[in-house]
Specification:
This protein is of the alpha+beta class and about 240 residues long. The strands form 4 sheets. Strands 5, 6, 7, 10, 11 and 12 form a 6-stranded antiparallel sheet that branches. The N and C termini lie far apart (about 130 Å).
Length: about 240
C-alpha cells in the first residue's frame, strides 16, 4: 500500500510539473503572435502616383499595417505628402516614403519650386545692376532695360518687367581673388517668369543693358511708366 501511494504521489507530482512546463511552452508561443499583430497607420498610395505628380488627398490614404512591416521612411500623416510632388513613381498600395516626396521645397531641386505654367530663367548681374548685392531669394524686382537705338532716339530706357520673384542666387564673389563671401555680389539671379516674359527677357539680355530695382515685399502694384530717352529729356529732367 505504501508503494502504491508513493507511485500515485510521484505520478501527481510529475503531472503537475508537466502541466506547468506545457503551459509555459504555450505562453512562449503566444507572445510573438501578440507582438506580430500590433499595428500602426501609415500613408499608402491609393492609386499609382507618377513621377512629378502633385499628390492630392484622393491619391493617398492611411492604412493600418503590422509594426514589423512599416518602412523606416514611411510617412504617417496626410499632411506630410498632400500638396507636394512625387520624386518618382509610387505604385498603388505602396507605402509613401519621405525620400519619394519633395516635401522640403527650399532644399529640393529648383524645378520642384516652379509653379505650373511658369519658367525659371537666369541673368547675370553686377554690383550696380543688382542693387549692390542686397537682392535675396524671395525678393521681388523690376527690370529696366536700356536699348542703344529705338526709333532713332539713341539710348532708350524702359521698365520692361515688374514684380518678378527671385528664385535663386548664384555664387557670390568679393575682391580680386574671387573668394566667396556672404556679403559679395551675386553673379547670377534666377527669376520666375511666364513663357512670354522669358522670350522678352532673352531678347533684352542680347540687345540691351539690364538694371534691377528692388521692391518692398508688400508692394505688388504694377506702375504705368513711359519710356525715357533723348526725345523726352527736356520735359522729363526729373520725375
Amino acid at each position: 500500500m505504501k508503494i502504491k501511494k508513493r507511485v500515485i504521489i510521484l505520478a501527481l507530482f510529475f503531472a503537475v510539473v508537466t502541466a506547468g512546463l506545457f503551459y509555459s511552452y504555450l505562453t512562449q508561443l503566444e507572445e510573438p503572435e501578440t507582438v506580430a499583430f500590433q499595428k500602426t497607420e501609415v500613408l499608402v498610395a491609393a492609386a499609382t502616383i507618377p513621377e512629378n505628380t502633385l499628390i492630392t488627398q484622393d491619391l493617398v490614404m492611411l492604412k493600418s499595417v503590422p509594426l514589423e512591416s512599416v518602412h523606416g521612411e514611411a510617412l504617417k500623416s496626410m499632411e506630410a505628402a498632400v500638396g507636394y510632388l512625387a520624386k518618382s513613381d509610387i505604385v498603388a498600395g505602396e507605402q509613401v516614403l519621405s525620400s519619394r516626396v519633395a516635401s522640403d521645397l527650399t532644399s529640393s531641386s529648383l524645378s520642384y519650386r516652379i509653379p505650373d505654367g511658369m519658367r525659371a530663367t537666369a541673368l547675370s548681374s553686377t554690383e550696380v545692376s543688382a542693387v549692390a548685392g542686397f537682392i535675396a531669394v524671395g525678393d521681388r524686382v523690376d527690370i529696366l532695360v536700356t536699348y542703344t537705338d529705338i526709333e532713332g532716339s539713341g539710348l532708350t530706357t524702359l521698365t520692361q518687367f515688374q514684380n518678378l520673384e527671385v528664385l535663386a542666387k548664384g555664387a557670390s564673389t568679393s575682391g580680386e581673388t574671387g573668394a566667396q563671401t556672404d556679403t559679395g555680389v551675386s553673379s547670377t539671379l534666377t527669376l520666375l517668369v511666364t513663357p512670354a516674359q522669358a522670350e522678352v527677357l532673352a531678347y533684352a539680355m542680347q540687345s540691351g543693358n539690364l538694371h534691377l530695382t528692388l521692391r518692398n515685399p508688400s508692394d505688388t502694384e504694377k506702375v504705368l511708366v513711359d519710356k525715357f530717352n533723348r526725345s523726352v529729356f527736356d520735359s522729363w529732367k526729373t520725375r
